[in-house]
Amino acid sequence: MLTPQVFAWWSTGEDSSTRNGSERIPQLRSGWGAGNSFLLDCGQALSRNSNMGVNPVGAYGVGVSLNDISFVEKLSHRLTFTYLHGNNSPRAIRGLNATLGGGDLDAGSNPYFVMGRDLTTHEYAYGINFDHKYRIYQNLHAVLETGWAHGEFQESVWGHRLVHKAAETDAWKAALGVTFKY
Q1: In this structure, is the dihedral angle defined by the CA atoms of residues 51, 132, 82 and 147, taken in order, positive or negative?
Q2: Are 131 and 143 in contact, with CB atoms under 8 Å apart?
Q3: How far is CA 39 from the centre of its chain?
Q4: H or E element in which residue 171 lies
């Protein structure tokens, strides 16, 4: 009737210095996401790379997923909740933003860290997704993916403009399509 899943992870983050190299765990695979969370770049059936793209490296998190929920033959659902909290020092990211933004903190992100993707120790994000799959034929499925996400970001790191823009609205996802696998 359903498969419950619980997942958690922890990853080192950057310390306050930008002069001693990176302290984050090296990664072999850039896309990882348990429970097909809307927050993480993982194996959604539709709209790959159109999720929130939060980086699990430099963060810790926990999630719960109810997978393969089925009350009607050929129709299944997945409900997932994920919470992430950053492990990166705000000082290092703030310094890179100021340096690479020409001294303008409101320039926001830099080539190495992006607001919403890389979280500091004072930032968090959480999201819920509710996905549905209907088997039309053995290899043909109609898929509906929905999601909602919210994050709290640090103004002293990313700048007034970006943080207040992010606070005005939450992220939403709705994708409808078909998949065929052979």
Answers
A1: positive
A2: yes
A3: 3
A4: strand 171-180
Token representation of residue 130? 């509710």
pTM for the whole thing?
A: 0.85
8-43 pLDDT, tens digit per residue, is 999 888 887 767 777 777 766 666 777 778 888 776
Phi, then psi, of 104 in degrees rounded to 5: -95, 105
CB 153 within 8 A of CB 166: yes
Query: Rounded distance, CA 108 to CA 130, Å?
Result: 31
Other beta carbons within 10 Å of 154 = 18
What are the residue boundaries of the structural domains of the chain, listed by start? 3-180
Gap between the Cα atoms of 66 and 160, Å rounded: 38
Mean pLDDT (whole number) for 88-117: 75
Q: Looking at residue 56, what is its pLDDT?
A: 86
